[in-house]
Give the backbone structure.
Amino acid sequence: MFQNIRRAIFLLAVFTVLCLAGWYALSLGRSSSELEYVGSYAWRAPDDARMGGLSGLELSDDGRTFVALSDRPALIYGTFLRQDGRIIGVDADPAARIVSDLGAFIDTLSGDTEGLALASDGRLYVSLEGYHAVNFITPGTVMVQWIPPFPGFLALPRNRGLEALALDPEGRIIAIPELPSRVGAGIPIFRHEGKPIAHMDSPDGTGRPPPDQNWTIPYTLRRDGFYLPVGADTGPDDRLYLLERASVGLAFSTRIRSFSFSPTGLTDERLLLQTAYFTHDNLEGISVWQDDQGAIRITLVSDDNFNSLQRNEFVEYRLPGTAAPKLP
C-alpha cells in the first residue's frame, strides 16, 4: 500500500514538473516580428503515404514552382497557384521515392531525410538523420549519390542530427544539426570546402568510403533557449536565414534569424520573427527568394509528422524595406 502511495506521489510530482516546464516554455513564446505576414495555405495532400512530413523546401526564383522533401524519403515537385501574390492552391506531382545508388529505397536503409538545398546547376543536396550524412541527387533523377561521411558527424545525437542545409554565397554546403554533440556546447555549423564527389566504395574494398576531410567547422551557433535549428537558406541578399522551432507537445513557436557570412563567423544577427505558440504548425522547411516587386519573400512549410491532428501548411512572410529592382 505504502509503495503505491509513494508511486502516486512520484507520478504527481513528475506531472507537476512537466506542467510547470510546459507553462514556462509557453510563456516564453511571445511574438515579435520584423516581417509582414503574407498568408498561409493548408494543403490537403492527395491520399499518398508520402505526401506529408515535409521537412525541406526549395522554390524557383519566381516563387511559382517548388520541390519539397518528405521525411519518408521522397521528393514532391509542384506548382503554387497564386492570387495577388498569395498562395491559394497547390498542384503537385505524385511523391517520387528516393533510392540509393544500388536501387534500394532509402527508407529501407533507416534513412530519415531532413534538410534540402538546391544548387545553381540543379543538384539537390539532402541531409539524413539515423545515420548522419549529406548526399546529393543529380537533376532529373531520384537516386542519391553518396558523399563520404565526415567523422565529426558521428558524435551528433541520433535523432537530433543534420536538420538544416543551405549553400553559402560561394555555393558551399552549410549543414546545421539540431543539437550539439555534447551538453553545453555551441551548435557546430559544418561547411564543405568544395564540390562533393560521390564515392561508390573505399579504396581498400571494405565497402566503406573514406572519410571526407573537406568538411570544416568555421562557425558555431549559440544554443538559445528552447529554440532548435530546423531549416536554413541563403537569400538573394547573401544572408543566411535560419529557421528555428520550439515545441511543447503539439504547440509550436517559430523563430527566424538572419546572419551575414564573414571570415570570422556569422555576424550581424537579426531577429526577424518569433511567433506565439499555436500561430503555425510545425514549420521545418524554408526558402528565401525575391518576388516580382523586388522584395525578399520567405516561404515556409510544416512537417505534419503524418499526424491527423496536424496539417501540411505553406506560410509566407515578406521582409519590408527590401523592395528593389528585380535581380536578373
About this structure: The longest helix spans residues 2-28.
